Amino acid sequence: MVRPRQPESSRATGWSLRSGSTLQRSRGVHSSTLSKEMKTPAPPARSTARRARATIKPSAAGASLGQRQPAAIASARLFGVSVLLGFLGLASAVFVITRLFESWRVTSGPASHVISIFGARLTYPAANAGAIVVTVLAGLGLLMAGAAAWRLVRELIADRSFRRALAASPPAPLDGAWVITDDRPQAFCAGLLRPRVYFSTGALQLLDPPALAAVLAHERYHARRHDPLRLACGRVLAAGLFFIPAMRSLTQRQDALAEISADEAAVLTAGVERSGLASAMLSFSQASSADVLGIDPERVDYLLGERSQWRFPVALCLGIAAALSLLIAVAVLAANAAAGSATLAPPFLSSQPCVAVLAMIPAAAGLAGLAYARTRQTPRPVAPAQE
Fold first, then answer.
1. Neighbour tally for 16: CB within 10 Å
2. What is the 3 state secondary structure string of 118-131?
């Protein structure tokens, strides 16, 4: 999605302006809430789409992508490695949690480790250094799984909210894309499982025919490659591996390569010229707010015809793999000597541990229901994915 570069907290994968009342998307999530402009009657979008359809050349719809695309190749490889590293992180989390259950012996009867405080006899767990290390690593594994699951839920909720908003204000078709009624210039690809290209009426009024064809080719490439889903997967994996800063850098590099590869595809599309793409970037940059930082230099260099080598970040990937391998190695070594024991019968909770455990189940269910109800009641603006 061709776009002016914006601060990390408000980056998008398309051409769009940011405002509290505008249609907003997170980078790669490609989901949004509809603004008041979108909730106006559909005819403005349909009439604008009709006028724009007459200006788009038929040749712009077909792409001749037989030529080599270095950024696209690098992006595909990077996505594959990111998925492998994510699965390695998931495997390490499962491994350390499994070793936790194997290292600890939990009984329901009274424990032999008892301490007396002011006449009250309290039990406490006993563990050696290996069991403590395994417990800490298992806690990290649970945090990894929880963070990834929470991010995944956010992505799914944002996508569902976007689809509901579109159902409330149906867009108008435009040569394989869809037009939403919004005066602010926006163009993006949205949808995790069924990605589609969307333009706002403001974007159609802003762009001249060559720029519109270039943006359309750019966004269609994102849809063909299912970039919304790819980038969402990258954010979920980065959330799960939050303790490895390099994983976030890898995700950011994947986002940048996705944009550059879409620029490559747009330039190689029949009927699209570099000047049209550059004109679109300039138009959106000039129409954007004052907080825009500028246009991505890499994309400008590509449009200027400079040859760039999209090198695969080998060192970055090896560093992430080494960190995960170290986690697994420490867990293996610690688990070999780990020994711990605990009891489910702490006197200060209940003399019958099963009663205490069973009492926790409805309490946890009630808290989960309360959290879900609050989530449903709170308006959820679609956000630029903040890591």
1. 29
2. CCEEEECCEECHHH
Does residue 385 sit within a domain? no
Residue 383 lies in a domain: no
Instruction: Flag the least confident range among 121-125, 152-156, 277-281, 372-376.
Output: 121-125
Q: Centre a 10 Å sphere on the Cβ of residue 225 and count the other Cβ atoms it contains.
A: 20
Token pair of 8, please?
Answer: 């990390």
> What residues make up the domain containing 272?
8-377
Q: Does residue 297 lie within any of the structural domains?
A: yes
384 in a structural domain: no
Q: How much of the chain is helix, strand and coil, in % rounded to 5?
A: 60, 10, 30
Instruction: State the CB neighbour count (10 A cutoff) for residue 191.
Output: 19
Condensed to tens digits (0 to 9), the pLDDT of residues 214-240 reads: 899 999 999 999 999 999 999 999 999
> What contacts 58, CB < 8 A, 6 or more positions away?
none
Using only the alpha carbons of the chain, give its radius of gyration: 26
Long-range contacts of 118-127 (CB under 8 A, 24+ apart): 120/347, 120/348, 121/347, 122/346, 122/347, 122/348, 123/343, 123/345, 123/346, 123/347, 125/340, 125/341, 125/342, 125/343, 126/340, 126/341, 126/342, 127/338, 127/339, 127/340, 127/341
Burial class from Cβ neighbours inside 10 Å (0-12, 13-18, 19+) for residue 364 reads: exposed
- Full-model pTM: 0.73
Query: How many domains, the chain?
Result: 1
Could you give the CA distance from residue 258 to residue 218 in angstroms, rounded to a whole number? 10
